[in-house]
Amino acid sequence: AIDASSHMFFNWFMAGLSIASNLLLVYLVKKVSVVAMGSYMILIYITAVMDVTIAISNAIVVPQNIHMGKYSFVVFGVGTCHWPAVPGLVSIYVFDLLFYQTFALLSCHFLYRYVVLQKTSEFLTNLKVWYWASAGIVFQIFFNATMAFFISHYEPRKDWKPDAQLVSDMFTYYGINMSRPFGHFHVVYAEMSNSYESMTWNWPIVIYTLSILGVIALLGVVMLVCAHKVMRMMKTLSSVVQTVFPLALSFTPVGCLVLLPLTGNTFGALGNYLMSLSTVYPAVDPLLLILCVQRYRRKIYSMIECCLPPKFRRSQ
After folding, report:
1. Mind telling me which residue stretches traverse the membrane in this protein (predicted)?
2. Residue 205 CB-density burial (10 A; 0-12 exposed, 13-18 middle, 19+ buried)
C-alpha cells in the first residue's frame, strides 16, 4: 500500500512547483533577450502552457493512482473516483491525454534543436515560425487522435474481470468496491481462473496497450537520435542533462507501468510511485532550461541580489 496523505501531498507539491517553475521560465523568456533562442521561444511558451495545464489536471484528480495486480491494473484518481462514473472516467481520460503530450512535446523540442543547431537542411532552417506551428498542430491532431483511439479501447468487455486479489486490494487499501461504478478504467491483459491454474489472454487489450507504448517508444527514439546528434556538436553537460532527465522521469516510468503487469507478478502500489515519479519532470524541466542558459541564471542571481541587504550584494 501507499500512504494516501503523503502521496497526495507530493502530487500537490509537484503540481504547485510545476506551475511556479513554468511561470518563472515564461517570465525569463519574455524579459531576457537570448538571440540563439529565435523562434524556439514559441515552443517554450507552448510547453509551459501544457505543463501548467497538466499540473492543474493533476491537482484536480489528486492524484492519479495505478494499482497493479496479476496481468491487470486499475487507473483512478483520489479526487475524482467518487464522482459519478461518467465524469470520473472522463477526468481520467483527459488527464491521460494531457499526460501523453509530454512525450509529443519532448520529441518536438529535440527535433527542432537538431534541425536548427545542426543546420542539416537550409530549407528547414529558414522556415518561419508559423510553418513550424502548423506542422506542430498537424502532428498534435494525429498524435491525439491515435491516443484517443487506443485509450477508448482500454475499458475491457464486461465479461473480463480483474483478478480477485486486485479487487481485494482496492477495497483494503483505498476503500473502493470495484463491483460498484466509480471513476476509473481497468486494463485486463489476461483473465485468471479462481484457482490461478489457467489463464486466457485478452489479446485486443494487449495489442491496444502495446500500441500506445509503441507510439511513445517511437517518440523516444526520435528524441534519442536528435539528442545524440546535438550532443556530438555541442559537447556540453546541459545537453546530457536535458536528455537523461526525460528518459528517467517520463519514458521509464510509463514503460514500467505498461510492461510490469504483463509479467504476471503482483506489484500493487508500485504503480502509484511510478506515477508520482512521472509528475516530477514537468516541474523540473523549466528549471533545467533556466540553469542551462547563462543569461537566465544571471537574471535569477540579480533578482535574488535585489532582495539582499546592500552589504551582501556582489556589486558593493
Report:
1. 9-28, 40-61, 73-92, 98-117, 129-151, 205-227, 239-261, 273-293
2. buried
Summarize pLDDT for 165-195 with one digit per residue, the tens: 888 888 888 888 887 777 777 888 888 766 6
The count of other CB atoms within 10 Å of the CB of residue 51 is 24
pLDDT at 120 over 70: no
Predicted TM-score (pTM) of the model is 0.76
Rounded to 5 degrees, what are φ and ψ at 88?
A: -65, -40
Amino acid identity for residue 76 in this structure: F
Q: Which residues contact 17 (CB under 8 A, 6 or more apart)?
A: 283
- 3-class secondary structure per residue, the chain: CCCHHHHHHHHHHHHHHHHHHHHHHHHHHHHCCCHHHCCHHHHHHHHHHHHHHHHHHHHHHCCEEEEEECCEEEEEECCCCCCCHHHHHHHHHHHHHHHHHHHHHHHHHHHHHHHHHHCCCHHHHCCCHHHHHHHHHHHHHHHHHHHHHHHCCCCCCCCCCCCHHHHHHHHHHHCCCCCCCCCEEEEECEEECCCCCCEEECHHHHHHHHHHHHHHHHHHHHHHHHHHHHHHHHCCHHHHHHHHHHHHHHHHHHHHHHHHHHHCCCCECHHHHHHHHHCHHHHHHHHHHHHHCHHHHHHHHHHHHHCCCHHHCCCC
Q: If you search the block for the grid coordinates 538571440, which residue do you land on?
A: 35
**Beta carbons of 220 and 247 less than 8 angstroms apart:** yes
Lowest mean pLDDT among 8-22, 49-63, 300-314: 300-314
